[in-house]
Write a structure and sequence with these properties.
The complex is a heterodimer of chains A (about 100) and B (about 150). With about 100 residues, chain A is mainly beta. Chain A has a single domain (about 5-100), classed as Immunoglobulin-like. In chain A, about 0% of the residues lie in helices and about 55% in strands. Chain A has a four-stranded antiparallel β-sheet, with no helix packed on it. Chain A has a three-stranded antiparallel β-sheet with strand order 1-2-5, with no helix packed on it. In chain A, about 35% of the residues are buried. Chain B is an alpha+beta fold and about 150 residues long. Chain B has one domain (about 1-140): Immunoglobulin-like (Sandwich), CATH 2.60.40. The chains are: A mainly beta (about 100), B alpha+beta (about 150). Strand 4 of chain A pairs antiparallel with strand 6 (about 95-105) of chain B, so a sheet runs across the interface.
Chain lengths: ~100, ~150
């Protein structure tokens, strides 16, 4: 589906992981301007980032994370690590992406 | 209310110690009650942080004035040894608990994301480390709210 942009970069002993996910992150509180009806909540609840199969970080999110969410953090890693990010939302949709640290 | 908070924090602590003993790398599941809790007091009680110690070792980087409340960049860095989780709470949002980050072994205690703020608010960061909770906060002034259309 290609909703995830995943970037990794070696910084000394750490690997920096940056991710941008394409997602509406609807709060469920907004109204459609034309129909005046509430737009149902649609948001990512869980993000899991792994390296070589080991969990680096999980992020549990609410509706108040911005549209097209951004996430960045670092971990003790090295070039060659296989980094994988997966997300799932409140409607059961999900996606994942992998990147090899260079 | 106090009793309720006590029960919740005790249960949370029990679960935390329980899982820690069995599987150190077990990660928390998305908790509906915590994310739907309304008001900062309710959130702090839900996540067992009512009595969190204020710590200057938690550094929060956020704009003093956010022109666009829909996208407010936030960085939270914890200098507390053994930091396990970092939570972000926007006090004045309808459901204040915004994010809970659980760190694996070897992951630096610094996370960066972008949050929505309906109006000017305190941004609270809660850190758990070694069975204890710590917090710190900054104020962010919002000139254009981020929860409308």
């Amino acid at each position: 589906m290609g909703t995830i942009k995943l970037r990794t970069k070696v910084k000394g002993d750490l690997v920096e992981v940056k991710a941008l996910i394409k997602h509406p992150m609807e709060t469920g509180l907004r109204k459609d301007k034309k129909t005046k009806e509430k737009i149902p909540a649609h948001y990512i609840q869980e993000v899991i980032v792994e390296a070589n199969g080991k969990t680096l970080l999980t992020a549990d999110w609410n509706t108040s994370i911005s549209k097209n969410p951004y996430l960045s953090f670092s971990y003790a890693g090295k070039a060659g690590d296989a980094v994988k990010l997966s997300w799932s939302d409140n409607k059961g949709e999900k996606d994942s992406a992998e990147a090899t640290v260079k | 209310m106090k009793r309720r908070a006590f029960i919740k924090s005790t249960v949370a602590a029990g679960i935390a110690t329980g899982t820690a003993a069995i599987a150190p790398n077990a990660f928390a599941k998305w908790t509906k009650e915590n994310f739907e809790a309304k008001g900062t007091d309710a959130v702090m009680a839900a996540i067992g942080a009512t009595d969190a110690t204020v710590s200057k070792d938690i550094k929060i980087k956020a704009p003093e004035i956010a022109e666009n409340g829909a996208v407010v960049p936030i960085t939270v860095e914890s200098g507390i040894e053994g930091t396990e989780t970092i939570s972000m709470i926007v006090s004045n949002n309808p459901t204040p608990l915004t994010a809970v980050f659980t760190l694996g072994e070897g992951t630096a205690a610094k996370v960066k994301s972008r949050v929505k703020m309906g109006k000017s608010s305190d941004l609270i960061a809660v850190v758990t480390a070694g069975g204890k909770t710590y917090k710190n906060h900054v104020s962010v002034k919002v000139t254009k709210g981020g929860c409308g259309g």
